[in-house]
Amino acid sequence: MNLKKGAEIELEIEELAFGGKGLTRIQTEQGGFVIFVVNTIPGQKVKAKVLKKRKKHAECRLLEVLEQSPLEQDVPYQKISGAPYIQLPHEKQIEFKKQASLDLFRKLGDIQNAPELFDEFIQSPLVHNYRNKMEYSFSVIRHDIDTNEEHDDFGLGFKRTGTWWKVENLDKASGLFDEEWENKLHIIREYLISTGLPAWHPPKKEGFFRHIVVRKSFANNELLINLVTSSDGLDKFNKELFIKKLIDTYRDRIAGVIHTINDDVADRAKLEHGPSDVIYGKHLIVEELLGLKFEISMQSFFQTNPSSAEKLYQKVIDYASEGRDLNGKVIMDLFCGTGTIGQLLASQLKEAQIVGVDIVPSAIENAKRNAKLNNIEGVEFFAEDVGKFLLNHPDYKGKIDTIVLDPPRAGIAPKALKRVIELGADRIVYVSCNPATQARDARDLRNAGYDLKKLSLVDQFPHTAHVESIMLFEK
Ligand SMILES: C[S@@+](CC[C@H](N)C(=O)[O-])C[C@H]1O[C@@H](n2cnc3c(N)ncnc32)[C@H](O)[C@@H]1O
């Protein structure tokens, strides 16, 4: 088999490794070789492209599933690249995720007793349609999923697996986001086609319609819509008619419509980059978690699966408080985003004092507003890099009882983790959306004298390779 970079190969997937990678072992003249293909399932026959070849393994990108796995079941949803496991029974997904995470903790974190420390796998209350945010792309290069052909016309949906330029129209619900919105998205697409304005051309970096981003409030059953276009053709776009079409289609579920003009053609340009106007209704929606209200704007970070986030947050509070009295104690919520964990801690532990830190100023503004909205006292929020904040506030050393850490996927920078350790807290509750970086940081915490007491996994992202993990450490 030719395993040179760029080669296209056909394989049958044998096992699942962490991070949604299916793997297969082959024999070559140079000995055994492991091949990884992202987003594949054991039993599938696939076509893949070699991205990297190393001494003993190769990393590949999935091009096409040639034959389904016997494990897969038919589902009433349109298959999209963002839900690679939707056809795998949910119990199987959980079994694979648990196995892969515990293996990873053993290998990367040297946590040999991970299975004994395992507390529970918290299931998502909603297995389908659980997301509260979805991003759709436009492209003039449309891939037809029925005929497997490419057309130059107008696509609105998700990028085809393995491509950044082709879009597959979303014609029915994907099983991840609001069903009514997705089942009727074709009506909005047909309307936008009728305007005569072109969809974006990703390779040429020109065109008008670029993205639609939608946020949903489960508490109020509302949708906040963000249409992102370029400015090329703006004078021909009738915003009022677009709003009317949305309201005719989705009625009073439309809470607000925002129009962003994004002329940035950089490869990694952020979708919503550029001046934004609220062209209808409100600029934010309100979500409720464990009895508290949270205002969420288009850009704020908010857990994508709110019903499961309630369970995640409750576990964090339980780990922080079980077996001890936190009244009068100082708790730090580091990487706090819009301050959800800190506020929930403050609402359940009335006498505790909470200090939240996040690098994004608008998230901290939201955190402060939300604390006011919920009449929560005893919380303070700071907009700063966690490492710098701890360097600039040496006075907190020795005064913090419990620290909650919820860093981004990359984990905690070594210098910042060192400063966290220097605080000398009795307990650390570490929440992570990337068990690989959590395993690395757990090794440093254990070397610094923190014992890992228990760990839980949370099924925040059914049908994807992702899982959330919570670890409780004690000094
Ligand atoms: C996974 S989110 C956690 C959000 C929050 N705990 C929640 O549940 O909504 C990670 C957060 O880390 C923040 N962040 C990333 N790098 C940071 C840094 N160096 N210092 C402080 N905050 C940072 C991001 O802005 C983001 O809000």
Automatic annotation (TrEMBL):
The keyword Iron does not apply. GO terms for biological process: rRNA base methylation. The active site is at C433, C433 (nucleophile). Keywords: Methyltransferase, S-adenosyl-L-methionine, Transferase. The keyword Transferase applies. Transmembrane segments: none annotated. GO terms for molecular function: rRNA (uridine-C5-)-methyltransferase activity. Belongs to the class I-like SAM-binding methyltransferase superfamily. RNA M5U methyltransferase family. This is 23S rRNA (Uracil-C(5))-methyltransferase RlmCD. The gene is rlmCD.
